[in-house]
Design goal:
Blueprint lengths: L5 E4 L6 E4 L1 H10 L9 H9 L15 E4 L6 E4 L12 H9 L9
Bound molecules: zinc ion (2 copies).
Amino acid sequence: MAEGDKKIVCQICGTVFIFSRREQIAFKKKGYTNIPRRCPVCRKKKRGYPGASKGGKGAVKQVFTIKCAGCNRFFESPTKPHPGLPMFCQACKVLNRGTQPKRRKRR
Ligand SMILES: [Zn+2]
Ligand SMILES: [Zn+2]
């Protein structure tokens, strides 16, 4: 490790990498003021796989098409509908919530 080199811990993988004096100068020339937070490996990884998703295959979300009991429109829901139970779309849910009759105590 030469003089002026910096040891940086990668924020992605935790590897300690050297940010050399030469690199620091090159960085400054480019106008960067912040030190790199990722090791060269992680920097390459991010460039190579934009938006790489974890999990891989078989992570397809199941969606149920349900007929709304309020407006008879079909809508999609990630939750499984219960047979015999009326299901409402998001719009009707909000509507029902807003127009719910409030119980008033009468004297
Ligand atoms: Zn890394
Ligand atoms: Zn509805």
